[in-house]
Amino acid sequence: MLFMKRSILLGAVLFSLLLTAAFTGVGWADAISPSQEQEFLDARVALEAARKAEGEKFAPSYIKQAEDFLKIAGSARSIPDAEGFSRASRLARAYAELGKASAELNADVEVLAATQETLLKAKAEIDRLKK
User: Phi-psi region for residue 21, left (φ > 0), alpha (ψ -120 to 50) or beta?
Assistant: First the structure.
């Protein structure tokens, strides 16, 4: 009885997925163009640049989002879903660039905080010597 209910539920889910694919055009999707492939490659390059800027340390959520969208783009490539592939590639690049910018900003904040601390120590030393 339980097996029969699961089989019916699985069939209904598969049918709804096929119906959704048919109405959204996934079944008849266009091939992925060279410019869309370039968007994907640009997103991967942007992610590597964000990692080099210590994005995983300073902006891990943005790096994770970029990685997730690259995975989605890879899945869309295998369908092929050109629109989904392109959208996921652009989002991956945007999150990677946001991660890089955030990492660079946070690294600068760390440097500024260290500089501020050094300045305060120097000022304290000057004040001590004046007395």
Answer: alpha
72 in helix, strand or coil?
Answer: helix
Instruction: Give the DSSP H or E segment for 4.
Output: helix 2-24
Q: Where do the structural domains in the chain lie, given as residue ranges?
A: 1-30, 34-130
Q: What is the pLDDT of residues 39-56, one digit of tens each?
A: 999 999 999 999 999 988
**What's the pTM value of the predicted model, to 2 decimals?**
0.66
Residue 68's Cβ-count burial label (10 Å; 0-12, 13-18, 19+) is middle
Helix (H) or strand (E) holding 84: helix 82-130
What distance in Å separates the CA atoms of residue 62 and residue 58, rounded to the nearest whole number? 9
